[in-house]
Write a structure and sequence with these properties.
Number of strands: 14
Helix content: 40-55%
Distance between the termini: 51 Å
CATH superfamily of the largest domain: HUPs
CATH architecture of the largest domain: 3-Layer(aba) Sandwich
Oligomer: single chain
Number of helices: 17
Structural class: alpha/beta
Number of domains: 2
Bound molecules: adenosine monophosphate, zinc ion
């Protein structure tokens, strides 16, 4: 496998080589569980699920995606709803896993929870204090950014410029504005754990450093997350881990997905444009949402609109339409290789739009094919490529029941009519009838005449 990945730290696409031959460790910053996941949160889950599927073909992958279940946003949600914290986190952990599952996201190998790793966090903070990278002040422990000369390397920020531009108001217990919290005190009504610095709770960044170390080791191969996490979250994780581990690199490759916006606006509750996956999957097949998320390259911004769903739905209709009526044995499916062009696209920094284009190349050939054998082998290759991308898991006939309604595009209608005529010419009346029914389901009535088949929307 000749995988190339864009590494945020190096600022370019580089060949991927794991630390240990044949094995890969990957850590993805997961959800903070105080609410349902919105469509933006689903983007890293889906794109790095695709990367995990690709890696598993060639490596023994250990993939950890954490759960942040101690956070001030969760505390606020508890105060606002009057519900205990445990009840809130348990509910949204389940919802997150169910919702991502509906988008074809496979469970990671490890799903560590912050609250189950407080001991590891305390140990790492103690190490940082001992090595003089952190200091205690008024029951807080802070990371001393000035002690880490590499600080700013990931987010390409110059610490001196950051200091000059800092706001004047600095918390009294901090030596410098950029020092960040490793541990903070908790009042009796807030979640807290005993520590050498009194009862308190961890800062957000130390959670990931401690959990990555525990489950994947001091140096991990791939660290992934959304663009917004580069600074401060990942910059701080890198500082903590490198300083605690005597300079050992924290992650060999840093991957960040671009942001998803809604009709060119930032998704926010105050704008009322937050789309929760939990709601979307009630009316939209998860596969459509997954494909819409994969239709842009993961590094690019993705502007979500009503059209995102419609065009993904149309693409799936074309894929399933080509597969409909083609008989492929289970053995042929199991034996089929992922098409080379699909693999080449994904190995080139996870170029999912190019991989989709490769699948559509197969669709074109499949629609033209006349021999059963040829059809079966093209369909098997299509299924294999689809499976790698987490798509085409439905039965083509079932796909069309209920999914295609009213808005089928004319070129798709024409293509189906063409397919039906080919089937009729080959005296395959069963396929011809299935296509007629499929068109009827979509609200299209067809009429055979002397000069071809006409259609109208009924
Ligand atoms: P959070 O639960 O806010 O910590 O976010 C979970 C993951 O979703 C992180 O990897 C974020 O970077 C990512 N994320 C949040 N909002 C968006 C968005 N609008 N587009 C893409 N990724 C996002
Ligand atoms: Zn993290």
């Amino acid at each position: 496998m000749t995988l190339q990945l864009h590494d945020t730290l190096k600022g370019k696409k580089v060949p991927f080589e794991p630390l240990i031959e044949g094995e890969v460790t990957m850590y993805l910053c997961g959800p903070t569980v105080y609410n349902y996941a919105h469509i933006g949160n689903a983007r890293p889950a889906v794109v790095f699920d695709l990367l995990a599927r690709l890696l598993r073909r060639s490596y023994k992958l250990t993939f950890a995606r954490n759960i942040t279940d101690v956070d001030d946003k969760i505390n606020t949600a508890s105060v606002e709803t009057g519900k205990p914290i445990d009840e809130i986190t348990a509910r949204f952990i389940k919802a997150y896993n169910d919702d991502m599952g509906a988008l074809g996201v496979r469970a990671p190998d490890i799903e560590p929870r912050a609250t189950q790793h407080i001991g590891e966090m305390i140990t790492m903070i103690e190490t940082l204090i001992e090595k003089e990278f952190a200091y205690e002040a008024e029951n807080h422990v802070l990371f001393d950014v000035s002690a880490n000369e590499n600080y700013g390397a990931l987010s390409k920020r110059d610490l001196r410029e950051m200091i000059a531009g800092a706001r004047v108001e600095v918390a009294p217990y901090k030596r410098a504005a950029h020092d960040f919290v490793l541990w903070k005190p908790s009042t009796p009504e807030l979640p807290g754990w005993d520590s050498p610095w009194g009862r308190g709770r961890p800062g957000w960044h130390i959670e990931c450093s401690a959990m990555a170390k525990k489950h994947l080791g001091e140096t991990i191969d791939i660290h992934a997350g959304g663009r917004d996490l580069v600074f401060p979250h990942h910059e701080n994780e890198m500082a903590q881990s490198c300083c605690a581990h005597d300079g050992a690199p924290f992650a060999r490759y840093w991957l960040h997905n671009g942001f998803l916006s809604m009709d060119e606006a930032k998704m926010s509750k105050s704008l009322g444009n937050v789309l929760f996956v939990h709601e979307m999957i009630k009316t939209i097949p998860g596969e459509v949402i997954r494909l819409a998320l994969l239709s842009a390259h993961y590094k690019q911004p993705l502007d979500w609109s009503a059209d995102s769903i419609e065009s993904a739905r149309r693409m799936l209709d074309r894929l399933y339409g080509a597969l409909q009526g083609v008989v492929v044995s289970d053995e042929a499916r199991a034996a089929a290789d992922v098409p080379k062009a699909v693999l080449a696209a994904l190995e080139d920094d996870l170029n999912s739009p190019r991989a989709m284009a490769a699948l559509f190349g197969l669709v074109k050939n499949l629609n033209k094919a006349t021999k059963d054998e040829e059809k079966a082998s093209l369909a098997a290759a299509l299924y294999a490529g689809g499976e790698l991308m987490g798509l085409l898991g439905n039965d083509p006939d079932e796909w069309f029941v209920g999914h295609v309604k009213g808005d089928m595009a004319p070129d798709e209608i024409e293509a189906l009519i063409e397919k039906r005529l080919t089937a009729k010419a080959a005296r395959d009346f069963e396929t011809a009838d299935t296509i007629r029914d499929q068109l009827l389901d979509a609200g299209i009535t067809i009429q055979d005449g002397h000069d071809g088949t006409s259609w109208r929307r009924s």
